[in-house]
Amino acid sequence: MEAQDAADNIREAAEKRELASDERKIKQEEAAERFRRRAAVIIGILAALLAITALGADQARETVTNANIRADDTYNFYQAKNIRQTSYQLAAGDLQALVQINPTLPAAARASIQARIAGYKKNGRALRGRPQRGRPR
What is the pLDDT of residues 107-132, one digit of tens each? Predict the structure, then answer.
């Protein structure tokens, strides 16, 4: 083999190696581009799922808030009803004590007080047994 042939063989080998290196770079760039595209698609899908989840969370939060409001309304209704019932019982008890302490009350006054006592007891029993109109549901 002559020197020129050896030089040509070395040049050809270097060119082949350079071509192989260029092909490798092209394949690597193509692979990187495929990765970027897939990553972009996956990020888009995750963003859509996150948006859907956020909407569901907002609706769940609203549902829980409304349920708490209804529970508070129901409890407040119960408390108000209980306070009125207790007020009627206390008023009836006070008037009964007044009648017992003052046996010398005139008959008209005693009848008026007894009528009030009966009314207070009736109102107290009415509150105990039935829900009032407008009660929260």
Answer: 999 999 999 999 999 998 888 765 65
pTM of the full structure: 0.54
CB 102 within 8 A of CB 59: no
**What is the total residue count of the chain?**
137
Q: How many CA atoms lie within 13 A of 2 on its CB side?
A: 3
Closest listed residue to residue 127, CA positions, set 71, 86, 92, 74? 86
Q: Which amino acid is at 87?
A: S
Maximum distance among all alpha carbons in the chain?
A: 151
Instruction: Give the separation between CA 7 and CA 17, rounded to whole angstroms.
Output: 15
Task: Give the residue ranges of the chain where pLDDT is below 50.
Answer: 136-137
Residues 6+ apart with CB under 8 A from 99: 105, 110, 113, 114, 117
d(CA 75, CA 132): 14
